[in-house]
Amino acid sequence: MEVLDQLTLNFVEESLGLLNFCLGLVMFGVALELTIADFRRLLLYPRSVLVGLASQLLLLPAITYLLVLVLNPTTSVALGMLLVAACPGGHLSNMFTVMAKGNGALSVSLTALATLVAVVTVPINFTFWSGLYLQSQSEVSAISLSVVQMVSTLLWVVGLPLLAGMLVNQYLPRFTQKARRPMRIVSLIIFAAFIVAAFSANFDLFLQYIHLLLLIVLAHNTIAYALGYGISTLFRLKLPDRKAIAIETGIQNSGLALVIIFNFFDGLGGMAFLAGWWGIWDIISGLLLVWIFAKVGEQNPLAKYS
Q: What is the C-alpha separation between 97 and 285, in angstroms, rounded?
């Protein structure tokens, strides 16, 4: 598995710039569905919001660090796990929360807030935990990573597109209503096409190691869901809120992780493969969790009163 540490999935500079633009387009499409009301709604669920943010932004990176020490994967895979954990929730979390009969408004609000602060929290979380991890690996040299440079990049590919999309939604509602669905579909297709192109040259190697990555992502993702549900249960939140926080903690923005990997780590193989598989597994595990929540609800008639 150490071969993944030597493998790189390189983009030429022009393609890398286009990849950043594509993610910005995705973020713009996401922001077209956000309104000021989504942030005002945070005041309605102060305890749930704080628990949700703590689960995703503080506890998940810390638990991931401990998981890395226990599993002891190859270095690039470990860094990929820490980076994915540092990223905000993915846009699919809102859809899965509604399907699971969770608190959809809370989910949207948490996604919006976590994505906005990601410009700062992702670099801080990743550099802190990865630095701690690399210090424990005496045979691995430290990675030189500028927090300021990463913040600058995230401002361009996340912050500004989100701000622009929200402004368009606020002041051009008719245009937004027409553009929202096509923008979401087109941007995701373009972004997915770039990711497929990046992986296609190394597809055989990906298949060779997918069984190892599958088990790691399965464990990591399951712990993330359990963490979100467990911490919200500990604080005695209502069942719809527990579902929302569990899904928000478990569904991560692996697309953002991949952009960071290609911008700052030259497409390092283990990181890229893990983040890529995480994006695929998000869909599978999300649908599975929705089914589990539905079955539990059917078998427990008191669940709706929880």
A: 13
Quote the CA–CA distance of 203 and 199 in Å, as a whole number: 6
Q: Please, what are the averages of pLDDT over each run of 10 residues along the chain (306 residues)? A: 68 69 81 74 83 96 96 91 92 84 86 87 92 75 68 86 87 85 75 69 74 90 96 94 95 88 82 87 91 72 48
Q: From 239, 291, 276, 271, select the one nearest 73 (Cα to Cα).
A: 271
Distance from the Cα of residue 84 to its chain's centroid: 6
Using CA atoms, how far apart are residues 26 and 24, in angstroms rounded to an integer? Answer: 5
Q: Contact, 10 vs 267, CB < 8 A?
A: yes
Q: Which two tokens stand for residue 50?
A: 């704080």
Give the residue from 228, 261, 295 showing the smallest Cα distance to 93.
Answer: 228
Q: What whole-number distance in Å separates Cα of residue 23 and Cα of residue 33?
A: 16
CA 303 to the chain's CA centroid: 29
Q: How much is the pTM?
A: 0.86
Domains of the chain: 3-305 (1.20.1530.20)
DSSP SS3 for 185? helix
Distance CA 152, CA 141 (A): 25
- For the stretch 33-40, contacts whose Cβ atoms lie closer than 8 Å and that sit 24 or more positions apart, written own/partner, are 33/108, 33/169, 33/180, 33/184, 34/108, 34/112, 34/162, 34/165, 34/166, 34/169, 35/166, 35/169, 35/170, 36/166, 36/170, 38/105, 38/108, 38/109, 38/112, 39/109, 39/112, 39/113
* pLDDT of the residue at 19: 76
